[in-house]
């Protein structure tokens, strides 16, 4: 899997690149500004996932993101930042970003997040989901689940393991774990058993 770490802080780039190269089947490149990102895409083709620092030179707000998203298609581009306002993340997703990875994400979770994004999903950290469900909603938490999350939850209620759910949904186990975490956060569930109980109470199991 080809990954591009785009950040103007050399230390951050090198730490992230080193971890990814050691912890997964990744070929990692680095860039320090938007112009370099575009040039590397033109030289070597699109990357599977680009981690794009939201405050990197050449970004000009989200204008740079939009440029990189278009240039890197059909690969995925995700915001990579120490902090990002929810409004900024939502705007970025509307422009084609595949979510937001905070620089504070634990190393192992970073690898899982990248695999999740590469599978075609949108990644948001657990805290982001929690912020969303704590605010006003249009209905019960169950209604906040998307169709795939509902399907995974129904499968969970039948007692299937992550491996069995992955096979049933044609997903990887890592992707299933990410979805289950999002489901628990959206439902306010403490764990998968609690999520299954809430699903049965809501009548979707």
TrEMBL record:
Gene3D superfamilies: 3.40.50.2300, Winged helix-like DNA-binding domain superfamily/Winged helix DNA-binding domain (1.10.10.10). Pfam families: GerE (PF00196), Response_reg (PF00072). SUPFAM superfamilies: C-terminal effector domain of the bipartite response regulators, CheY-like. PROSITE patterns: HTH_LUXR_2, RESPONSE_REGULATORY. It comes from the Bacteria. GO terms for molecular function: DNA binding. SMART domains: HTH_LUXR, REC. Residues 2-118 form the Response regulatory domain. Residues 141-203 form the HTH luxR-type domain. One of its GO terms (biological process) is phosphorelay signal transduction system. The keyword Phosphoprotein applies. Coiled coil: none annotated. Keywords: DNA-binding, Phosphoprotein. CDD domains: LuxR_C_like, REC_NarL-like. The modification 4-aspartylphosphate is found at residue 53. PANTHER family: HTH-TYPE TRANSCRIPTIONAL REGULATOR YHJB-RELATED (PTHR45566). This is Two component transcriptional regulator, LuxR family.
